[in-house]
Write a structure and sequence with these properties.
It comes from Billgrantia tianxiuensis. This is DctP family TRAP transporter solute-binding subunit. With 336 residues, the protein is an alpha/beta fold. The chain contains 13 helices and nine strands.
Length: 336
């Protein structure tokens, strides 16, 4: 007769179950290019919110890779597509893999972030997410905000497009931004971001454009005298997940991950709005002159900037040019 040590048997079973659970546990790698700071970084805040919700309500674990530790945005979307990184949060890189997303950068489309939120959280945002999913295999879990872009310069206060005539502005090496500045009467000069402080300090360019938080956090206000809060582009963050990975999750876990993505996007928006409000006060206290155009003045900016951009964008999008009209209709509905 064989004697069984009940204590050993129980512990052995527990150990086997424990190993099995560890093997089956899934880890989500979440990468972005911003600092790992939930109080001052929109992507950092969104990532931490996503992690807390998912880990609190599922058996999934979330490992964060902030500050471009896994690469720049184009590299991150490549990793998300091939599944080596399951979740990424990116902004400009989205239009490179899903061109229709580029319509969100049409200048002076949104009169405020609130209008942008209504559009992105409504039918248009859902349809765009489905379109980009079909094109890329990446599911949009939520929309965040990487900032509303404004013009700075060190020559004169800009109240209308006429004030931009002859001024050289650093822009991203993106045709849409080049055409926008040309339409406004300025001289666009594509320069890498790392070279911007030197270009401003030495007079290679007279001004540039960026969100207020970026202007303040990078001490651009120390190199520029004037800031015009024209809000020419509302820059969207996309929280993306590899859809094959998403489909491998249980329905219960999918629901949590989807909800976490939406809330994370809202968290990112809130942090971005806070840093913007904080930044406007800070740059003024540091001596920068800040001007907010009137509705009539903003209409002048829109009338000058949009035609060149729309002509280029319609040609660049080809069959996807219909998204220009879809966005226009969505904005009109949001403003009713």
């Amino acid at each position: 007769m064989t004697t069984i040590n009940l204590k050993s048997a129980l512990f052995g079973t527990a150990l086997v179950f424990g190993v099995s659970t560890m093997v089956q546990a899934q880890t989500i790698r979440f990468a972005h290019v911003d600092p790992d700071d939930w109080q001052g970084s929109k992507k950092g805040a969104a990532a931490h919110m996503f992690k807390k919700i998912v880990e609190g309500e599922t058996d999934l674990s979330v490992e964060l890779f902030p500050a471009a530790s896994l690469g720049n945005e184009p590299e991150l979307v490549e990793q998300a597509i091939d599944g080596t990184t399951q979740v990424v949060m990116v902004s400009g890189a989205m239009a490179q893999i899903c061109p229709a997303a580029g319509v969100l950068d049409i200048p002076y489309t949104f009169d405020s972030p609130v209008t942008a939120w209504r559009v992105l959280d409504g039918e248009f945002g859902q349809e765009l997410a489905e379109h980009c999913l079909n094109q890329t295999g990446l599911r949009t879990l939520g929309y965040g905000e990487t900032g509303v872009r404004h013009f700075t310069n060190s020559v004169r206060e800009i109240r209308s497009p006429d004030d931009m005539a002859g001024l050289r502005f650093r822009v991203q090496d993106i045709p849409l931004y080049v055409e926008m500045v040309r339409g406004l009467g300025g001289e666009p000069t594509p320069i890498a971001w790392s070279e911007v402080p030197t270009a401003l300090a030495t007079g290679v360019v007279d001004g540039h454009e960026n969100p207020v938080g970026t202007i303040y956090n990078n001490n651009i206000h120390e190199l520029q005298d004037y800031l015009t809060l024209d809000g020419h582009v509302y820059a969207t963050d996309f929280l993306l997940i590899n859809d094959d990975f998403y489909q491998s999750l249980s329905p219960q876990d999918q629901a949590v991950v989807k909800r976490a993505g939406v809330i994370a996007g809202v968290m990112g928006r809130a942090i971005q709005q806070f840093t913007t409000a904080e930044g406007v006060i800070a740059v003024q206290e540091a001596g920068m002159q800040v001007y907010t155009p009137s509705a009539e003045e903003l209409e002048q900016f829109r009338e000058r900037a949009q035609p060149r951009v729309l002509e280029w964008l319609a040609d660049d999008l080809g069959p996807d040019a219909e998204w220009i009209d879809k966005l226009e209709a969505a904005v009109a509905a949001a403003n009713r």
